[in-house]
Fold:
Amino acid sequence: MRPRTIATLIALAWLAAPAAAQAHISLHPNTIPAGAFVTLNVRVPGEQEGAYAYKIDMQIPPGFTAIDTQNVPGWSVKEVITKPAKPIQTDEGPVDEEVSQIIWTGDRSTLGRLENGAFVQFPLSIAMPANLAGQSLAFKTVQYYSNGKVVHWIGSPSAEFPAPTVNITAKGGVIEDVAGGEAGPTPGQTPAGQSAAAAPASAGSSGGASKGLAITALVVGALGLIAGLGGLLVARRARGSF
Structure:
C-alpha cells in the first residue's frame, strides 16, 4: 500500500467522524426528588450566526400548579394557566389550575437578545409533583431567531434537537446535576451514590452523548490502526522488503 493511499484513507476517516454537536437547551439541576422545591435554571444557547434568539416558548409537563419566575434584564415572561382534566391533588387539597406554558420574550435591546455563541439562564422556583417519582419529564421548548428560523427542542434524548429533561427520583433524595445527554440525564440513569433499584424507571432511548462518545471512540481507534499500519508499511518499504 502506497503512502499516498494511506493518507487518503486517514482523510476519509476524519471526514466520516461526527461533527461537533451544538449545545442544547438544558435544565439544571436535572435530577430532583419528588416533592422537592428547587430553583430550576433553564439554560438556553444562541446558535445562529448573524442572528439572535428573542423568544423561548416552553411547554410545562402536567401537574405543576405553581411556578415562580425570576426577572431577567431585557426579557419579559408570561405564564399560561389552564385547567387540567381533573383537579390535581396536593398537600393543601385539590387544585383546578396548572401552569402549562412559560414564554420568555426579549425586548431586542442589547440585553434582550441572545446572540450567537452566548447563553442566557431563566431561573424558575418550582416544586416537583410528589406523585411523579421514577419518571423523566420532558420540557418541550421552541426557540425563535431574528432570521426567521424556529428550532423545536421536542425530540427524544437521542434526537438532534432533544427536549430538555429532568429525572424525578424518590422522595427525600438529593438534588443533583447528573452528567449525560446535553439536554439532561438519560432517562433511567442511576445518579451517583444511588443503587440501580432506586433509579428512575426508563422512559426512552439512551442519551445522544453516550452514543456520540462511542462513535468517536471507534473513529479514533480506526485512525490509530490506520496510522500504525501506515508506519509499518513505510518502514518495510524503506528496508526494501515490501
Residues 42 and 218 are 33 Å apart (CA to CA). The longest helix spans residues 208-239.
